[in-house]
Design goal:
It comes from Shewanella intestini. This protein is an alpha+beta fold. The chain has 7 helices and 5 strands; from the N terminus they run H-H-H-H-E-E-H-E-E-E-H-H. The protein is flat, with a radius of gyration of 23 Å.
């Protein structure tokens, strides 16, 4: 009985939480869009009209950010606001998280690697880029140093280490699958999702 309940919970919980999360996001954006429509004196004509408006605004913003004067103006405003320490901290963190979700900004050379530990075990890491900042390379001994991210299980945080390229073992494993493996401490994998 307990095993059956656990199996049902483990299979239903991810689906229910995912649907709830996306539904909550839809409701929030739809509410924001309805508020914009009502402030303009327009009555929403169908369910989801607010969400559609927000999606259109985001799309138009994406088009505008491909125009140089708009990008320059936005960068100028951003630089001015960054002069305020509290805003800089909050905005910088949100911008970095948004950049992580943007596939266009991800390095094309992201590579899953293994690094041997002192006790003979191996840890999974990700080469996040080929360029190490000059102040760090100046402080390090000679060698080809690369930034490697070690993701912590069950959280989005990780530890970035500088490792010599010769000490890395490259693994033919996609970034997404390896990240899922790290985030769940090896409990979940793409095979599990495919079979379920």
């Amino acid at each position: 009985m307990k095993k059956t309940l656990t199996r049902g919970l483990m299979n239903l919980l991810p689906m229910v939480l995912s649907i709830w999360l996306f539904w909550s996001l839809f409701i929030s954006l739809d509410g924001l869009g309805r508020l914009l429509l009502e402030s303009l004196g327009v009555k929403p004509i169908f369910i989801g009209a607010g969400f559609t408006l927000v999606a259109v605004i985001i799309f138009i913003a994406g088009l505008l950010f491909s125009v140089s004067p708009i990008v320059w103006l936005y960068s100028w405003v951003e630089r001015q606001l960054m002069k305020f320490p509290l805003f800089k901290s909050v905005y910088g963190s949100i911008r970095d998280i948004a950049a992580l979700m943007n596939n266009d900004n991800k390095p094309k050379n992201q590579q899953t690697v293994l690094i041997k530990q002192a006790n003979g075990s191996y840890i999974v890491g990700f080469i996040m880029g080929d360029n190490t900042p000059a102040p760090l390379t100046d402080a390090l001994p000679d060698g080809d140093w690369v930034p490697v991210l070690f993701q912590l299980s069950y959280q989005m945080a990780g530890v970035t280490s500088l490792v010599k390229r010769e000490d890395l073992i490259e693994v033919q494993w996609s970034f997404e699958e390896a990240m899922r493996f790290n985030l769940t401490a090896g409990i979940s994998s793409s095979k599990d999702i495919a079979h379920n």
